[in-house]
Design a protein that fits this description.
This protein has three helices and no strands. By secondary structure, it is an all-alpha fold. Helix 2 packs antiparallel against helix 3.
Length: 163
């Protein structure tokens, strides 16, 4: 890179108002380099820049490979997740279908039991009038006067009907 001080020097001429007299400008500059040193330094900078450029190309290649591998891994993982999710959905659907089948059977059994309960209640209701008759007969028999209050063969049968 050429400094701005050097680039403006070729435009200076005797009519330019931006010129001055400086003291000590003719003295040897200790830090000045020879054109050969400058060329050597520039060549070294160019070689260093080329090495850095090559390292950058290599690094970009490695990064591109890592990105591609990561993309491939993500695609593979996505497929694996899709397969696992599909399998789980099938398992859940199958389990739901089995549970619905069991629910239908249970509902049928409940309906059957409710029918049995209704029949049992009807049977119990059907037994109440004869039970009332047996109770009434026993109560009437217990009201008999002295000698008529006997334990004849009908008495144990009435007690058996009531219990």
């Amino acid at each position: 890179v050429v400094s701005t001080q050097s680039t403006g020097c070729h435009q200076l001429d005797n009519t330019n108002t931006d010129t001055h007299l400086y003291e000590g400008v003719t003295q040897e500059i200790g830090s000045a380099v020879t054109p050969a040193d400058w060329s050597s330094y520039s060549d070294a900078n160019i070689k260093k820049a080329e090495c850095e450029k090559q390292a950058s190309v290599t690094l970009r290649s490695v990064i591109t490979g890592v990105i591609e591998q990561t993309r491939n891994d993500l695609v593979t993982q996505c497929r694996n997740v899709d397969v696992a999710l599909s399998k789980r959905v099938q398992e859940c659907t199958s389990a739901k279908d089995r549970l619905n089948g069991h629910l239908d059977k249970v509902e049928q059994e409940i309906e059957s039991m409710e029918g049995n309960i209704s029949k049992l209640k009807a049977a119990i209701q059907d037994k109440i009038p004869p039970l009332k008759v047996a109770h009434t007969r026993l109560a009437n028999r217990s009201q008999r006067p002295n000698i008529e209050l006997t334990r004849d063969p009908a008495h144990p049968q009435l007690v058996n009907e009531v219990t």
